[in-house]
Design goal:
It contains five helices and 17 strands. The chain is mainly beta and about 350 residues long.
Length: about 350
């Protein structure tokens, strides 16, 4: 699992800008009474690396999907934030099906901010992978000329979520996750969180269907800092680490379809840097994040899902239509937590 040293050092140094917690909650400006729409463009696309062997002698196999850029639309109101993401074919980098095959990507996330808690749920559906590091495994293979090995029936579905708690009550987590608030003074907070998901792998090889269920749960803690520069600009670095467990269940086709179970210790690290510009109506910014997730599958064999990706966003806030406000108010009477 490799993480660019420059980013790690930048995050480490940025934590030196910590200041005392602000006692005046008026330092946080809320946009909860407005509807906010954001359009995001990012390169956070699925890639799995299987490593067999030790250190430099390890043989790696990298599976990726044929979509390099995805777009998403987010809608926020009150404490609710919903996002739909997909990878359109018309974007450059998503159109090389002749060599890499066809892939599809869709995910939907739903986030709630009740008081100092952050509750997230998501569903993700990815289909169609290809073998990315062909040159490592087949030296005679030529990029741009020869097709990649393709796995069109390999499908990954994930149902998951996370539960977080903000330790510093004067810190605005919405300013990081959704830009639903603006923090007027620099401040940071530790945020412990629990993440969990169910992932289903499906594939079809030589007419034989295979399926594997994986359950993951992990405990994590991260430090998030909102460094405010002037009236409209902020910089938000964060770094989080965690440990957890993975439990898998599958039928071994090579062993006559016998059901097998396995358990693994997982390691997770993620971090990033966000730069944003905010006004009461318009907002835009960019993020550079990294994520690294790994576990030992067998002796001298590991699986990693690691990547470095960027994101650009632009958004607009406006007064909610009456039908939206009235509907929300009715639901809130039945569900007070909203």
């Amino acid at each position: 699992m490799s993480i660019p040293k420059a980013i790690f050092v930048l995050l480490f140094l940025s934590f030196a800008f910590r200041t005392k917690a602000q006692s005046d909650t008026a330092n946080i400006k809320s946009y909860a009474e407005q509807v906010m729409i954001r359009v995001n463009l990012d390169t956070n696309i699925e890639s799995y690396t299987f490593s067999e062997g030790e250190y430099k002698d390890a043989e790696k196999t990298v599976f990726s999907i044929n979509n390099k850029v995805k777009t998403s639309l987010s809608v926020d109101y009150k404490i609710i934030s919903a996002t739909l993401s997909f990878a359109p074919k018309f974007l450059q980098g998503n159109d090389s099906e002749a060599l890499k095959g066809s892939s599809s990507y869709t995910d939907f996330s739903f986030r709630l901010f009740p008081k100092r808690f952050i509750q997230t749920f998501y569903y993700k559906n990815v289909r169609g992978f290809y073998l990315e590091n062909m040159k490592d495994l087949f030296p005679q293979w030529q990029e741009g000329r020869d097709p990649y090995l393709q796995f069109p029936d390999l499908r990954v579905q994930s149902f998951g979520g996370s539960t977080s708690y903000i330790l510093n009550k004067n810190f605005s987590a919405k300013s990081i996750y959704t830009q639903g608030e603006w923090q007027k003074n620099s401040s940071g907070s530790w945020i412990p969180f629990l993440d969990y998901d169910l992932t289903i792998f499906r594939n079809k090889t030589e007419g034989i269907n295979s399926k594997e269920f994986q359950y993951k749960i992990g405990g994590n803690i991260g430090y998030f800092y909102n460094w405010v520069l002037g009236k409209n600009v902020n910089i938000l670095p964060f770094l989080a680490m965690g440990l957890g467990g993975k439990f898998s269940s599958y039928r071994n086709i090579e062993n006559g379809g016998v059901k097998e179970n396995a358990q693994y210790l997982t390691i997770r690290m993620e971090g990033g840097l966000h730069i944003g510009y905010n006004t009461d109506r318009f907002l835009f910014g960019g993020k550079m994040n990294f994520s690294a997730y790994a576990y030992d599958q067998k002796k001298n064999q590991t699986v990693e899902n690691s990547n470095l990706y960027g994101l650009l966003y632009i958004g607009y806030r406006f007064a909610p239509p009456k039908v939206v406000k009235n509907t929300y108010d009715k639901i809130q009477k039945k569900i007070p937590v909203l």
